[in-house]
Amino acid sequence: MQLARTSERGGTAGTLRGFNLFGVPVRLHFTFILLVIYLVVTDLGSHQTSASYALFLVGLFASVLLHEMGHAFVGMRCGVRTTEIIMFPIGGLSRMARMLRPTEELLIALAGPAVNVALSFGIFAYMYSQHMAVSVQLSDLLQPTEASAVARLGYANLVLAGFNLLPAFPMDGGRMLRALLSYIRPEDEATRLAAWLGRMLAISIALYGLLAPQFMLVFFAMFIYLGAAQEGAAATGRTLTQGIPVRAAMMTEFRTLDHGNTIRDAANLLLSTSQQDFPVMHSGQVVGLLGRNLLLKALAADGPDAYVAGVMDRDFLSLEPNLDLAGILPLMAQSGRCALVMDHNHLLGLLTTDNLSEFLLLRRFGMEPVV
Question: Facing residues of 177 across strands?
Fold first, then answer.
């Protein structure tokens, strides 16, 4: 049975399309520009040449990317597809097509740090074969010089491996901890514990960064805290939706567009209702989906007299009504704000991120769903 289909053009909000690597889309988070600014400023005060520093940065980026490809490769061996890799300023994130079983998560999480250890070993082996100085002073790592560039990349991989093995979300060590705890405790409880450790770690790093002062650590701590909080919220969402079908949360009162309608018709419908996503119908069958953002882009580019059939999204997300709501939460986060709930070719309702959030809020206050 096909769980769902997602648009290849879709991706996590706040990311820019980068490139494909072995069939896996690699996307860059918009906060990368903050990292670039910081590194340029660091370069101005560095004792390295710009070419050497740029080479080190490329090597570091490649190390993080290979770390994520390690996750993707082991995931593929476990039968789990990697839907995308997101590159953040503090590292990367590999999104899997489905929830992982404890053994799968343990192996996949361990693969990333193992790649960094292997890269570090390879770099130091190369330096040894070339009779280069492997050991460097701490001052050389903090204030890099031309001579320490290669060694610094080797030590950076060790730091990446060690940092990711910390037993707290969103690091790989936190995922390994959750996998181990899941053998003896419910998964959501294990997730909340690992997420709590992640938040405590982030607070500790931020306090140290403020006192040191090392403001880059504060920047890292912010991302760690947000990642841990997101994992905790996801665990709560799974608890509130476990065993509940999609049809319990879908919108059943909605308006549709005909494929012969114009953008003007769609804009009028957008203004006259609270709905922001409209299924496009032809002869009683769904042929596309027109969302608010796509509508506005079409209005600006093609004008109000263009037909919705020419601008609608034909590769929309569709869900079966009896699917477990907990299992589709990651799909909703990745694929956009609206999914169509369909029984074969019959449209039953809409599931949007807004009404899903309202459903979770009501569940949190003890309201039982009508199924």
Answer: none
